Amino acid sequence: ASWWQKFFHITIPMLTPVIFFNVVMQTIRLFMMFTQAYIITEGGPIDSTMVYVLYLFKQAFQYSSMGYASALAWILLIILSVMTFLIFKSSSYWVFYENEEGGI
């Protein structure tokens, strides 16, 4: 077998559990881009770097709209839960586990 065949039929399938974990973690991290936007620009000129979590933070602690911020946090939880659920459901099609196909 060539190097490419070994890579795509052996190496990549064995790495899919690690890739799966990283996809889930990076999806969650994508919505948590608070620190960079707050430290560097605090939302930027004319809210050009206003991300969802920074908007949530400002609603809660700058404008004292705790109820609205709480609703935003619940929406964020629902969005992340749905996205994570979809990733977990799709994992049965692309994540390889050794014992599923006659392995050890």
Alpha carbon gyration radius: 20 Å
Output mean pLDDT. 88
| DSSP helix fraction | over 70%
Element pattern in H and E: HHHH
The geometry reads as elongated
Q: What distance separates the N and C termini? A: 23 Å
β content, as a range? under 5%
Biggest sheet character? none
Number of alpha- plus pi-helical segments: 4
Count of the domains: 1
Q: How many individual β-strands?
A: 0
- Low-confidence runs of at least 5 consecutive residues: none
Helix vs. strand class:
mainly alpha
Written overview of the protein:
It is found in: Cell membrane. Belongs to the binding-protein-dependent transport system permease family. The chain has 104 residues and is mostly helical. Helices cover 72% and strands 0% of the residues. Helix 1 runs antiparallel to helix 4 and helix 3 runs antiparallel to helix 4 (66-94). The mean pLDDT is 88.
Question: What's the structural blueprint in terms of helices and strands?
Answer:
Blueprint: H1 3-30, H2 34-40, H3 52-62, H4 66-94
